[in-house]
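User: I'm new to structure prediction. If I give you an amino acid sequence, what do you actually give back? Let's try with this one:
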Amino acid sequence: MNNHDVPPSRQLKQIDLAADLVVVGGGMAGVCAAIAAARNGASVVLVQDRSVLGGNASREIRMHIVGADSHGHKSGARETGLIEELRLEDAVRNPHRSYALWDLLLYEKVKAESNITLLLDTTCVSAEVEEKTDGSRHIRAVHAVRHSTEDQFRIVAPFFADCSGDGRLGLEAGADCTEGREARASYGEEHAPEKADNARLGSSIMFMAREYPTAQRFIAPDWIRKFSRSDFKGHRDVFSYEYGYWWFEWGGHLDTVKDNEKIRHELLRIALGVWDYVKNSGDHPGAVNYALDWVAPISGKRESRRFLGRHVLTGQDIFNPNARPDGVAYGGWPIDLHPIEGVDAPEKPACVHHGFPHLYSIPYGCYCSRNVENLFFAGRNISATHVAFGSTRVMATCAIGGQAVGTAAALLAASQATSTAALANPEGWKTLQQCLAKDDAFVPGVINEDTGDLAKSARVSASSQSPETPAAAVADGLTRNLRGTWGPWSADATHLWKSETLPATLRLELPSPTPLTEIHLTFDTGLERELMLSGSDKATAKIVRGPQPETAQHYRVMVNGKLLVEEPFNYLRKRVHQMNSSEPVRLVELEILSTHGVPEARVFDVRLLAREKP
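Assistant: Good question. You get back a string of structure tokens that encode the predicted 3D arrangement of the chain. For your 614 residues, that looks like this:
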């Protein structure tokens, strides 16, 4: 049927929108990209094809968010910035581990930003692209459809970010991309196969079960797969019953986009088949009182397309401990490769981890298309080989990449640039790095060099301190304790002030009275521990599901002896307080009255931002 044959009353309503940045995909990378851009002054349209935000971390899939600290094996490497804010909020407001509340937290955070227009249940379907004489491309607009409201959108912007996982926007825009595994000789990667192929990591479907006071029967459908004890080898352990199991993996030998429905059905057969084994084989008597409570409606996808950027991250980059001058994010998860056959290859281990002790930098060029000049990407689709992707794909690493992309887009939009290349130079990298550092996004080798931060020239003192944790540490430009194992750029050293008792007072006296615009505080939130929402009781046992004990709870900020703000129940790491007066400031005092557990005050960083001259 042609469009003119459709009765007008049944046509989709056309809605035109415009913004500084369009983000397609509302997983952790997309959420962080949108919030980062909005908080840095850009207008954003966030397009998400599901009813909830969070992607693989949402209630629809329920995978826990892991990252550079490698399930706690790299103590202190936990990501900060926006993902830390979200994790801290969730731990305090959702101690009982409801994925529905986690989804609502993400929704709340996005809706709280007046600069963001959120389009849920909306699918990107095409893009308007200008082809330039030099062969490059420039996206003019994105077209999206929301069938639930019978609307179609045309969204115009100077910059776009594909955070969709499968790369739908980039594909529509003609962005160079790749799929499958590269040959070993292509990039000299020892962990790549000898010959290139179209194989990829498979997908999984999770389930959750609940324990009852009495025995619970499971009657297996006749369409499930059957398993026996011999199928569970090589990290395919049934060690608990409430949350399982990431190794329900299948479909790596297929096209994870075009064959997704086939993969989902087979994963449902596998999930129910494994539960049938747990309940009815007799090998797990401890499961007698457990019953299925939830089975994921969609599969959690690990891999599909990867875009090609100005830099392709390789296995050599992952194993390189040096900080890069163009680094804007980092990773630490091992190169985590799985057999393409998944559960069909019980003789192979479910995963092989190629570990390393350091943290690696992810350069700006991995987030920028090499042939579409105004296209960013963040998430599992960044510019990386299959081997490198084995590390970068985890969600906390995706999230900080999203924050970098959103921040970069805001900087570019503010300068009226037309290409991501405007930041692809030493000055641009440094500008982006300093903006990320101000927003508490850690980047290896980057310290605070903000010339507008007057704390760097202040005389810092405290009511008490120790030689190892002096008051002056709050102005040394670093916002976490470092480990020598992280790379040549790092060393075993603490970078926080710790008092001897409570209450405690930190004082910063400026050389001369100067008007301030903002006071930034960075507290200790126990980066040495894992912090995530997980359905696993074993994983949760290592996590504080509430305020972190190191964090200042009740504090006051005094300016020139007058109260600026009093916060009786803080649990966040990063706090920013606005100055509503142009009165010159000589003295800033931070008085910490209590924490959530430890008997001393702990502060990593204080910034005193000067008011710009007219």
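You can read the tokens as a compact description of the fold. Here is one thing that stands out. The longest strand covers residues 504-514.
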